[in-house]
Amino acid sequence: MTSESRVEPTRRGGKRIAAAKVRLNDSVARKLAAPKAGQILYRDTELPGLAVRVLATGKRAFVVDKWLDNRQVRVTLGDVHHLTTERARQLARQALGKLAEGIDPTKEKRAAQAKSVSLIEVLDAYIASRKNLAERTIYDYRRLVECYLSDWKSRPVLSMDKETVEQLHAS
Predict the structure, then answer these.
(1) Three-state SS sequence of the chain
(2) What local confidence, expressed as pLDDT, does residue 17 receive?
(3) pTM of the full predicted structure?
(4) For residues 145 and 137, is the Cβ–Cβ distance under 8 A?
(5) Angle formed by the axes of helices 119-129 and 135-148, nearest 10°
(6) C-alpha separations of 100 from 62, 94, 113 in Å
(7) Residue 5 pLDDT > 80, yes or no?
(8) 108 with 114: CB under 8 angstroms?
(9) Cα(130)–Cα(147) distance, rounded to whole angstroms?
(10) Which residue of 5, 54, 59, 150 has the fewest CB atoms within a 10 Å radius of its CB?
(11) What is the pLDDT of residues 118-134, one digit of tens each?
(12) Handedness of CA 22, 90, 94, 30 (dihedral sign)
């Protein structure tokens, strides 16, 4: 860290997270000290909102940290070992632009992931959440999907509406 960095606590979910300000570059981002427990944010002095989050495990990631509608939004941009500081700044500007428009990039990402969840993924999640299902029940569920819904198992669940089901059922 440089001599201009200082540690200042911030709040997230009622927890205090230490934060320091530092001029980020590729070399500095990879060498930032990890805390003994929890996480620490090293905020960029050049682009407000951009930071490197360092976990106690040593894992480091570029993040955008900004308030939106009275709640803190933290968007992970990528690992510091796979992303240059300049590319992180470009991505941060895009994320900050969306946040300035009132759009939460994390909600957009979750919505896009939800739209792509397939029938077989839903079945796997259901089985994983039901710890008390008998082996035979699990076998039957999987067999029914393979036998009767094999054309549908890779299809996104949210794309299945009444007309789609009727068309697939008629063929």
Answers:
(1) CCCCCCEEEEEECCEEEEEEEECCCHHHHHHCCCCCCCEEEEEECCCCCEEEEEECCCCEEEEEEEEECCEEEEEEEEECCCCCHHHHHHHHHHHHHHHHCCCCHHHHHHHHHHHCCEHHHHHHHHHHHCCCCCHHHHHHHHHHHHHHCCCCCCCEHHHCCHHHHHHHHHC
(2) 67
(3) 0.64
(4) no
(5) 170
(6) 19, 10, 23
(7) no
(8) no
(9) 22
(10) 150
(11) 889 999 999 999 999 99
(12) negative
The answer for residues whose C-beta is within 8 angstroms of residue 126's C-beta and 6 or more apart is 141
| Lookup: tokens for 38 | 């929890």
CA dist., res. 67 & res. 48, Å (int): 12
Question: Which whole-number Å values give the CA distances from 57 to 33, 62, 105, in the listed order?
Answer: 11, 16, 26
Mean pLDDT of 147-170: 84
Name residue, tokens 């632009």: 97
Backbone angles phi, psi at 86, to 5 degrees: -65, -40
13: exposed, middle or buried (Cβ count in 10 Å: 0-12, 13-18, 19+): exposed
